[in-house]
Amino acid sequence: MRIKRLSSTVESEADIARMQKDEGRYKEVLELLSSMQMAKTDSDTRIRYNNIPFPANTRFSGREDVLDAVHKALSLRDTATSTQSPRSMALFGMGGVGKTQIALQYAYQNLEEFQVILWVAADNAIAIGQSFRAIAEGLGLLGTEDYTKDAAAALWKVKNWLTKTKTSCLIVFDNADDLVALKAAWPGAMGGSGLSVLLTTRNFTVATTIAAGYVQVNALADEDGGRMLLKVIDGGHATPADSQHALAISRRFGGLPLALAQIGGFVTQRKLSLQEVLPLYERYSTKIDARKAPGSDYEHTLSSVWNVSFEKLTETPTHLLYLLSFFDPDGISETILLQGSQRLEDTKFSFLCDELDFGDAVEELIRGALVNRAGESATLTIHRLVQSAARNRLNEADIVNYFDAVVHVLCWGFPDHSSVDIGHQISAWERCEKCLPHVSHLAALAVRHQYGAGNRQKYADLLLRCGWYLYEREMYFIARQMVEQATSSFDDTTTLAYASALDLGGLIDLDLARAAHALEPFKRALDIRKARLGPEDPFIAYSLNNIALVYTEMGELDLAYAAHQEAIRIRLQANSDRIGNSYSNMASLLLRMGSPDEAEEMLAKCPSLKDFTDETFLNTGNPRFSGDMVLLSRIRLAQGRLAEALRLASKALAFRRKLLGNRLKTCDSQYDVASMLHKDGHTSSAIQLLEEIISIAETFAEGEGQQARALYKLSELQAKRGMQTESMACKDRALKLRAKLKPELADAPFQEAEFSKLCLWMLW
């Protein structure tokens, strides 16, 4: 009994052994637990891997003091620092000062010390998620199917792998200016050889809040800048006169590495002598320097430098450069430009549709050191300050023109949910993911610089389409930002697109267990559709379904029943292929009303779910149908058929893990399985699943409700096992989360029903 109480490992093995005695009954559960255990075992393997996105800079110069400070802070050979805590250091400084190049130099210098080096583009939550997805794929932590490459799942898997691996690791967070996003990605304690974290940032709060220390990176001293410039132009045999000119140029540009690199590229491309540089520059800088603002020397100076390069471009590369200045700078897929430019009416962008003309334009920008191209992935990168300098050359009318062109190009990536009731569009997810960071970047530019779209309706439509994709991927908070910006951009609030925006905002509230907030926008969307389409259009049924779901969650079951009945009538009359959606929603309501047998009869009417075999659920490949499997498992549970309920719930969980990654719906399914295992006497396995829910939910802000409910359940199970200290710790965390999410429940009893109010009853 003492061993059983103290050793969770013994208990888990005993649980599994009991289930293995009746393997037919617990086949799905055993497969689930086995896959979880396999993932943990795989993390013990030592590997070598890096995803450093740039080649080593053979012309790097100076910075010995900064590199030395970073090395002292991050070296694994420093025995004074515990290997359980990540060593960390921030490089803080203005844009263009060379922070990324220093981080790059440090990474290449320490390829032998760190077996794994992970480079994360950390501008915002979307960029971080995409970087972690690529890392998880590189480390072999994701499946081979495209739809498993979910950013949130990848983030959790990589962080989980880091806590268990014996491999020595360095993580570089580059351009980490978003503190909230960085905290979500920040690794926890390291279980093996050690972890070091280096971040580059322009945000002093980030530099001083999350890292253990920071170094301020300043511009190069005049002499170091001169030497760097000579390296850039391959001036290995520079004359004393060349050295003096390089020193003067460095002094003129304040030793800013990015400016010196740009000058060097320009000198090399145009075969200039260093003696010619400053006189040429002065011809372009006089007017700009005359209106310098205090503290903004570098920005104006850089604009002057790039003006020299910009003036040398021919017409087509100039259009491409201005277009690229509105995209996310770190990975612009050429596919987006080639495919998204179809049917773009402005003739000056016609070159985008022709691979040869497009390639010629890219080549000229590369020769001018204005963009870089990764051949294998066919992606372009451009420095942020080059983008800023390019946009500064545009007048207001030009900004509108290029902004609208980018909107048109990016719309290619996303399906239109406004005019047709199309449901989930998983087949488009890969395309959406390519365009996602660019929509986010464009929206941020619009807010930061007050850029206005010429076609506001088209821009609102792009934001809305992107918001629907984010909603499907359960990135609710970012989706909400998109839909709010879209709503404010609509000139006409009587269109079907505006109704779609209202629906999306309501669905986000609904999934986050804020049903009462969703009712009003759903009703407004219904009114717009009735005015536009008439009362019998199938799209009216979609609105009625949404309203019925809200009533169900609010406990207004009679109102929900009436709305579902009307939706079913309209869809049957129109012979709609979405009738199955109405049947399954009505089945959910009937179960909520305490009629599981009637619920089963209603669910059986779904055309795509005949016979209720696993294949009919899973072969649809649609996330919506995993919800139907969850519903049937709950029906079986209400009918007292626990074994079948557990089998279905386990299947649904495996399906959601594979298709959706570790997000809200996956946590919800996992809670179902854990609860059923506990009912069936397998408490240790239930505890294992609950602990994993908590670990997963900590990696995304939307998961706090699931986290609180799992903490409640875990506390109860631990208390029954005599683990009072652990139980009280979980209880305290659960209560704090509940008070934060729903202050009105702060004094509510510590009961499952009260914590269930933090989660949707039926999360489709």
UniProtKB/TrEMBL annotation:
Give the Gene3D superfamilies listed for this entry. Answer: P-loop containing nucleotide triphosphate hydrolases (3.40.50.300), Tetratricopeptide repeat domain (1.25.40.10)
Q: What's a Pfam family this protein contains? A: DUF7779
Which stretches make up the NB-ARC domain?
83-228
Origin superkingdom:
Eukaryota
Question: InterPro entries given for it?
Answer: DUF7779, NB-ARC, P-loop_NTPase, TPR-like_helical_dom_sf, TPR_rpt
Q: Which GO terms describe its molecular function?
A: ADP binding
Annotated ranges, domain DUF7779: 309-397
Checking PANTHER family in the record gives:
NB-ARC AND TPR DOMAIN PROTEIN, ZU5 DOMAIN-CONTAINING PROTEIN
Q: What is this protein called?
A: TPR-like protein
